[in-house]
Amino acid sequence: MNSISQENILVGEIANGLPLTIPVYRLKGDGTGPHVYIQANMHGAEVQGNAVIYQLLEQLKQLDLKADFTLVPYANPIGCNQKSGEFTLGRFDPITGTNWNRMYLDATSIIPEFVRNHLTSDASTIKHAFREQLITHIDQKLNGPAYQLTTGQRIAYNLQRLAHQADIVLDLHTGPISSKHLYCPTYAKPSARFFNIEHVLLIDNGFGGALDEASFCPWWDLSDALKAQGINFDIAVDAFTVELGSQEKIDLTAAKYDAQSILSYLTHKEAFNNSHHQPAKIARYSCHLNDYIAYYSPLGGMVEYLAPLGGHIKAGTPIANILRMERYLSEAPLHQLTFDKDAIAILHFASASVNQGTELYKFFTNYSAL
Amino acid sequence: MNSISQENILVGEIANGLPLTIPVYRLKGDGTGPHVYIQANMHGAEVQGNAVIYQLLEQLKQLDLKADFTLVPYANPIGCNQKSGEFTLGRFDPITGTNWNRMYLDATSIIPEFVRNHLTSDASTIKHAFREQLITHIDQKLNGPAYQLTTGQRIAYNLQRLAHQADIVLDLHTGPISSKHLYCPTYAKPSARFFNIEHVLLIDNGFGGALDEASFCPWWDLSDALKAQGINFDIAVDAFTVELGSQEKIDLTAAKYDAQSILSYLTHKEAFNNSHHQPAKIARYSCHLNDYIAYYSPLGGMVEYLAPLGGHIKAGTPIANILRMERYLSEAPLHQLTFDKDAIAILHFASASVNQGTELYKFFTNYSAL
Amino acid sequence: MNSISQENILVGEIANGLPLTIPVYRLKGDGTGPHVYIQANMHGAEVQGNAVIYQLLEQLKQLDLKADFTLVPYANPIGCNQKSGEFTLGRFDPITGTNWNRMYLDATSIIPEFVRNHLTSDASTIKHAFREQLITHIDQKLNGPAYQLTTGQRIAYNLQRLAHQADIVLDLHTGPISSKHLYCPTYAKPSARFFNIEHVLLIDNGFGGALDEASFCPWWDLSDALKAQGINFDIAVDAFTVELGSQEKIDLTAAKYDAQSILSYLTHKEAFNNSHHQPAKIARYSCHLNDYIAYYSPLGGMVEYLAPLGGHIKAGTPIANILRMERYLSEAPLHQLTFDKDAIAILHFASASVNQGTELYKFFTNYSAL
Amino acid sequence: MNSISQENILVGEIANGLPLTIPVYRLKGDGTGPHVYIQANMHGAEVQGNAVIYQLLEQLKQLDLKADFTLVPYANPIGCNQKSGEFTLGRFDPITGTNWNRMYLDATSIIPEFVRNHLTSDASTIKHAFREQLITHIDQKLNGPAYQLTTGQRIAYNLQRLAHQADIVLDLHTGPISSKHLYCPTYAKPSARFFNIEHVLLIDNGFGGALDEASFCPWWDLSDALKAQGINFDIAVDAFTVELGSQEKIDLTAAKYDAQSILSYLTHKEAFNNSHHQPAKIARYSCHLNDYIAYYSPLGGMVEYLAPLGGHIKAGTPIANILRMERYLSEAPLHQLTFDKDAIAILHFASASVNQGTELYKFFTNYSAL
């Protein structure tokens, strides 16, 4: 049995002065594998990742570990506990509206000087020095004048500080009502086949504030900047956002399956000795982020969702009925919606009540088999 | 084809001065049947009743009507449009917290004088005069000083004014995540068999502010008060709260089934000529409201719900797992919950995240076959 | 310097498993005075009471105490931290809508048996035994099956358990935008003059779920029940809800003034040796709760409040302008509101945007000098 | 008396199918002045602009108009009516968290081709053609596939379509608790002196999604792009965000003063014949946006705000007390906050309860007399 340690990190204080803490679990490997960082529940309603971390811990304590592990459930102690009616209003800071997963720190600014200082370094030196730089950069913000940090930044930077120490970063999310899908940087596409996830979104190098981007963009930028100097340096970090299915649900059986999916990927990344975790034999599809289309409701009304999640939809087939009962006599009360492209329905809105312009669906278009 | 008329009644104004209106649909029968009032969506997230009214209208326009019908979808124009995150926060007035279905007017006060004035009247006179009194009582409030009415009362009283004109009142609701069930006054128990609803809650004469109570309590009180004077007077109104299943969902197929269930009941109440709608052959169970037990979470945590809705649960069998990932090392991370009584699980909370004390389940106990 | 002790009591757990605690401060007197219980901030936005407790502690540590003191700031660790936009949404449980100050336990049921058992007891025995009974009654609920307690009850009962140990209970609240006022049971009217509070609401014996009522109603009921048996027993507990002014504000200077007001009342109640705290010489007005009139907005719109808080308003004088800019051409854009009674404006709504039926003002009517 | 016309534009539909409309008021001048567009209340709680539009209309109908006017109160029919507790939660879309004033359309993309096509046009032709292009660009979005527009974009683009027709655009906002201030593009600095607003924020050419930027950036970009081609073209549009003071307040007297401030500016812009409106003689200060510093709370707690709004604060003087009553014994319960720069306090947070990291204040630093 591997030993697991727990630390509770302090990430803020609330109005009655009580501390906001996040539990951090750690397992040590034999020193020959990568460092793996996995967090869950940055968005308050997206709880299933906690169950996946539970199932991972149950497995990891029995495996022969090469890798070190840092696992962080309940990554957002505000979002996680923010109720509004029965549901959890945890997607954005309730005070400011800022998405909790858009507050990580951009490290772009540190690259030019770093490159100038490492034109003659070897890859291993670069890797260690850059990691140290990333952590220092975060520390400067965390240790700078306290009045310069927002609530969300304080949470995000503390987590990012942990993530920067890892070679592999998995941020466990869910959609609203959703099939499984994976946000994967294009360079890591070959690794995507090792997850048991049917739908893979390929994303370019662009920082929008999310943890996966905060983890891989600096290394990708570094690789590009060194290449511009004629130096070949492979991107040293894999980072993914793993969308586990629907929010507001705990399913321990599904969590076990998803833990095995992660163990399969980590086996591929040589995190274990003697692991037999293999990817499932499933059809996988990839789609570029530019072809991931949001479909906003063209009408206000009550929605019957018709497109099966993960289902391949032909252009022009019905995807939803919109019921508008206050127009029963004045116009047709039922409007059938279609989408004008062949698509895979990945997720839909969590409620049946929508305004005109509410995001109804997100679709893979121009997808191909992976 | 029967003709349907629409009226939009004014029930309030919002901050930018725009009117709050509710659509009211009416069909006229041949004058020999009861007057039927059906409303839906008083709680904003409980939208499926609108779909049932849609399916009812589709049927009613083709049936041979004895009864008059008043159908009111979107009964609450504030609750229906109150979003908080993706979900609809429509169970209570967002300003005051008052449950929208606890604001109807109590008519108890009019009974003593009415009885004194009708000690020698016949049943038909009593029925007509009391109905008129109920409507007058509401009108006095609606036409009294404008500063004496809350937002919710204005909506509720306008609806109650319509309901008081009917002999049969159905208020279509849903639970959070729920099986179908029916709130039925004990005197109407024989009628409950004509709905296709497995679970029937029997309620006594007690006014708590809901529409079903506001509709039947005055007639029940009147019947009791007349009986105390030695006069036999049957309770002249049937009123039910029909819980259609889960909130935040539109399912037109299920709505058609539930419309047929209502048509079966209304056939029994002689609302139609030549209707062949019959109740489905299903097992039905009844439970007294006093035996309808709320089970509040004994722990804060993330919930995996295990009890199947409508399922018959043996005392002591697991009903939920509570995951507490911040106690992975310090205590067991998974707590199995049980209930100490044999029960039918009727509904559970809509979210997987609960505080200690959040209502997890509601159970029928001491139930019997109906 | 008197010594102050602190205990943090556990009143619940939130979704990420973290404990909800409330700080309790205690000071011991010389054993010859009453036991005083003061809490603040049960409603999340009503924070000024915390500052009053701060100022009280600053004073109490220097006074010569006869009384024992229990002081509880931050009485509601959920409400206190519940943000929705910039403001604190702490008046009701965000899940259920239940007002946090309507969840205390009703002790009515214990009285008949208690009276039967104490028909021959002396007053001191009755007082001690009844206090013990009240605490036992609460303990039975707190120690009963965990699944029977709501989140709010768990908080309320834990506080009530502390309050029942006291002879004097002060629950510090604020209005929305408000002048100071005091909820005072009619029997304690003579004591009301010792607070520096201009406006006093006299309330009868009726339990609605609030802490003041939960504290005095059982003793009042007991006194009445004993009187019915021919036994004279003075109501042994004083309990008040103290409305300190407006919510969402901390003002340490005002808090010091209000602490002195409380010290003046407590001096009158012989809580100190050698205290010179005297009530301020101000005009005081009392009004019976039945004459405390809510004025709901007769129109939806934007409100300019005109009635000065604490101001004596003549019937028919303007109390507000309602601006309705979408009717600039179709009708007058500005509506002047009046109230049809002479009144003192005690509080008004916290926002300028109101629906038709939003509570605009609360007025003392039929008031008299105290 | 000038005639005023009203049109209600349709900008969306809500869940019960009812239309979202915005009232638009228009006055025609003699054709020799600029076209002026003024809107208010895009953020739901920032209502005072509606009162300013009211006072403007009262004046404009009596003035001798050169300019045409388009005035839009209640610009956001969702935000304006979104209550959460007593306050208005109208700063962001309650579903997505997106700030309502960050959804306007970026026109940058149309500039390169436009410049290529107008290298030989005269200034007047350029102005007219570019305005037409801007409107066409918006129309393409509004008339494109309905499923491509979010709720907020539909509102914003409809307003922007009106604003693009104007030479002068004023977007009336307020701060939380705030002194008056003006967001002014640097090129329009001389005009800032004609408003009766003490504090002026100078902003560069950068599009972040707000209406003022959406109005001036395209013209500024165009001017720059033409200059790069050696063509001199003055920026043809003035656009300002006018921050009128505090949210959640209607004050008709203050509104009249602010209407006069706008009339003074518009007199300067030759909107009237024979207008005598002159700017007030007040001290004005300007500060570059980069020097406008947000001060986030270094602690969670209850805040007593000490810095007077509009007050000139010396570095190191107290700006707030943070009360932390759960640490009364374990550390000092009162923490005094200071800011390390000389500053003018422009606004502070609307509530006394703050998390660590909540924005407490915004300060002008490095300001100078205007």
Automatic annotation (TrEMBL), chains A, B, C, D:
It holds the Pfam family AstE_AspA_cat. Keywords: Hydrolase, Metal-binding, Zinc. The keyword Zinc applies. Transmembrane segments: none annotated. InterPro entries: AstE_AspA_cat, N-alpha-Ac-DABA_deacetylase. Its cofactor is Zn(2+). Residues 33-268 form the Succinylglutamate desuccinylase/Aspartoacylase catalytic domain. One of its GO terms (molecular function) is metal ion binding. This is Succinylglutamate desuccinylase/Aspartoacylase catalytic domain-containing protein. It comes from Pseudoalteromonas tunicata D2.
